[in-house]
Design goal:
Layout: E1 8-12, H1 17-33, E2 37-42, E3 51-56
Antiparallel strand pairs: 1-3, 2-3
Length: about 55
């Protein structure tokens, strides 16, 4: 699904809502300014890690 990974970042989904909202707003700004795809998923083996946003162009 994600073909290019030359520019990517993981952003942890914070437990506090205020941090979560800031992360989402930042991702929305990035996708408006430069084409990008972002998905919410789990890192680590078999997706056992914490939930994070994966951003890639």
């Amino acid at each position: 699904m994600l073909e290019r990974e030359d520019w990517f970042a993981w952003f942890p989904v914070a437990a506090a809502d205020r941090f979560g909202r800031k992360r989402v707003a930042w991702l929305q700004t990035v996708t408006r300014e430069r084409p990008a795809f972002f998905v919410l998923g789990q890192s680590g083996a078999n997706g056992a890690g914490p939930w994070r946003y994966y951003v890639t162009t």
